[in-house]
Design goal:
This protein is an alpha+beta fold and 253 residues long. The chain contains 4 helices and 15 strands. A hairpin with a 4-residue loop joins strand 7 and strand 8.
Length: 253
């Protein structure tokens, strides 16, 4: 995985709407992400502006003082270089999603048994995820649906079960007694209801129809998800991450 910081200026030029779709500014959401890095002892790379790189892990998250600290070895030659530069960019991954934030006011703290590299609590975290990857299947106890009007029979309202979902789209189950939807059809105003905290409206475009393995009597509708607002995309991202996490926990039981 690429552990170099994303070039934000170049990325902003590629996205006319700016970086809002990647930017997280909610203090509670940032704290949650940092806690995941901390609890999982997830490797992070601290990248200095001169190319210096320190590979380490997050050691503490102190929300009262507004500070983070990273594990450090006092004899690591990279430490002094980073501290002299005063700022760096932290890069890490959660479930293959790239995270990035600035580490400002770097200070090397020496303890009796352990040294640490301290910095200010980040005000912004950037999250980068390719749109069409990291597809998840909802958990069995969940019953997510997409509500929409049939494009060729407007009076026919449908509530189609979600088979799987990603940031780029979703697969829906179309029962055999429902008239088929033509490939390429645009489905505006779809109500996506994944759980109590993840509900939003989106336009879907039907990409393909295929059979469903097993005894299910119906078709799989592969749909592209279009024109999500930044808020909806963040909700969907959280849902995907939480579903991945719960599936891993269930696999351990």
């Amino acid at each position: 995985m690429d552990t170099q910081p994303m070039p934000l200026d170049a990325l902003a030029r590629q996205h006319p709407g700016g970086l809002d779709e990647f930017r997280i500014t909610s203090a509670s959401e940032i704290k949650q992400i940092l806690r995941q890095l901390l609890d999982g002892a997830v490797p992070v790379n601290i990248n200095g502006p001169d190319g210096t790189v320190l590979s380490t892990t997050l050691w503490t998250v102190d929300t009262l003082r507004g500070a983070l600290s990273f594990s450090a070895s006092a004899d690591d030659p990279h430490l002094e270089q980073l501290v002299q530069q005063d700022e760096a960019v932290v890069v890490s991954y959660l479930d293959s999603v790239k995270l990035q934030f600035d580490a400002t006011r770097l200070v090397l703290v020496h303890g009796r048994r352990q040294s640490a590299l301290s910095c200010d609590f980040p005000e912004v975290v950037y999250r980068f995820q390719r749109r069409n990857t990291y597809r998840v299947r909802p958990l069995h106890r969940a019953a997510p649906v997409v509500r929409l009007d049939h494009p060729e029979q407007p009076r026919l309202s449908l509530a189609l079960r979600v088979l799987d979902v990603s940031l780029g789209g979703c697969a829906l189950f179309l029962p055999e007694d429902v008239p088929p939807v033509p490939a390429g059809a645009s489905l505006p105003g779809c109500s996506v209801e994944l759980d109590a905290d993840t509900q939003f409206t989106a336009t879907l475009r039907l990409q393909h129809l295929s059979s469903v393995p097993g005894e299910a009597r119906g078709l799989r509708m592969g749909c592209e998800m279009l024109r999500l607002s930044p808020e909806s995309e963040r909700m969907l991202q959280r849902y995907i991450e939480q579903t991945q996490k719960r599936r891993r926990l269930l696999a351990l039981d």
